[in-house]
Amino acid sequence: MDDFILRALAGGIAVALVAGPLGAFVVWRRMAYFGDTLAHSALLGVALGFLLGISLNLTVIALCTALAVLLVILQRQRRLASDTLLGILAHSSLSLGIVSVAFLEGVRIDLMGYLFGDILAVTRGDLVWIFVGGLAALVLLLLLWRPLLAMTVHEDLARVEGVPVMWVSLGFMVLIAVVIAVAMKVVGILLITALMIIPAATARRLAATPEQMALLAGGLGSLAVLGGVAGSLTWDTPTGPSIVVAAAALFAIIYLVPGRRFRRAG
Amino acid sequence: MPPDHDIPLVTMHKVGLVLGGRRILHDVDLGVGKGQIVTLIGPNGAGKTCLVRVLLGLIGATEGQVNRAAGLRIGYMPQRVMVDEVLPITVGRFLTLGGRASRQRQEAVLRETGVAHLMGQPVQSVSGGEMQRVLLARALLREPDLLVLDEPAQGVDVGGQAEVFRLIANIRDRYGCGVLLVSHELHLVMEAADSVVCLNQHVCCTGRPEAVSRHPEYLRLFGHPSEARGLAVYAHDHDHRHDLHGCVVSDQGQGEREKVQGDKP
């Protein structure tokens, strides 16, 4: 097998293993559109990185986290509904990102690569970043697991029981930002949310505990990466979208299998 | 009244709350002592839930002081907890979200609240009344100094409500914790409470249940004197009890308790 395929699989599976468990929380907390909005702003982070001449990954994380905090503050006002607000921010930050990229002089950016991913062009340096960033995200998720789960079930109850809700929420947003920065190269900013929520939603049908659902989501995401890369090589299709198609196919298969709708916890 | 009631767990002094420019509470004084059951009653929109949230520290008071005893452990039972179907979680696991506990401990508290059979069930499959008991069990698991129960008998039929209040009184006796109870169920509340606080943005009247039920402010809030007395006086002519499912349970060993409760104020 060619080196670039091995790198693609290693990077893709590493991303899926992080995106799955985090995606479970995104699904549980009904934050799919929230995550999508943050991902849309990533391009602005890329432009900012070029402008400042520093690591794109860092500017993406910083910008996504800042936008997340801004969103949480804006959601406290009652004039505009949350989904309207998310829609405004998602599309204006994406457009602002594309416009900013056009302003960058002397830099040629592969826009399609950022929007839809370019997993077959993953370099050794990218891999190092994916592993380090992904591992850091997993460790943080493990540390936040209990309090985050408690406040996902009932925030007030968790707060009374001593969960520092504000800090845990902030930690969760940083996690989403890191996963966006890590997954950008693999599926592109427009499809990152898919890699988080489709495997998690698929895993729900098979899981009886939160932990099972998170682990299964990571596994199913990895399967989607394998299937997507294989399909992409066989039929010469764009790889990022192929991975998402594979994830969606898995979802359809698992839910079409007859049986009880959700496995009852035992 | 046992002397323990004088040991304050939480006290509020002249607490006021303004939310979005609207005055929700003003000049509220409230205290719960060790082993004391205090019941908060009041019409809809009286600010009961807001007062509870201030007491728990979930929202800050606009004015006045809230003092909690140092190291106070609070067991809180919210009005309603709905867990989304998309989150697979059993009742046993749900209990431990508030703090780690061995399987034996989980089973013990569930047995205590009468829902031990739910242990391995998905949280989403339990009924409203069962969920109240699961929430109570989760609060007990923390071995609280103070139990705060917001409408603990909501969605439970009348027979079951009496059962819930009896359970709460038993828990107080066993754990010696203070209890703050928010409720609509006037006559049932009267049975269990040491002290009743009648709230309508401010404290209208407060005192022993028998006294409050005759207070003019109370009567004004809860209707005509005759009607209100019919509700408030606890005349228990039940000669049997019901369990969670409404089945009649034998009442042996309860004679003395019933006699005490039967004494009309």
From TrEMBL, chain A:
Bilayer topology reads: Multi-pass membrane protein
Q: Which InterPro entries match?
A: ABC_BtuC-like, ABC_TroCD
Q: Which domain of life is it from?
A: Bacteria
Predominant location of this chain? membrane
Keywords (alphabetical) are: Cell inner membrane, Cell membrane, Ion transport, Membrane, Transmembrane, Transmembrane helix, Transport, Zinc, Zinc transport
**GO cellular-component term (any):** ATP-binding cassette (ABC) transporter complex
Biological process GO terms, please? response to zinc ion; transmembrane transport; zinc ion transport
Membrane-spanning residues where?
48-73, 85-107, 127-145, 165-183, 189-207, 214-233, 239-257
Function according to Swiss-Prot or TrEMBL = Involved in the high-affinity zinc uptake transport system.
Family, similarity comment? Belongs to the ABC-3 integral membrane protein family.
Name assigned to this protein: High-affinity zinc uptake system membrane protein ZnuB
> What is the species of this protein?
Thioalkalivibrio denitrificans
Question: Lineage from the top down?
Answer: Bacteria, Pseudomonadati, Pseudomonadota, Gammaproteobacteria, Chromatiales
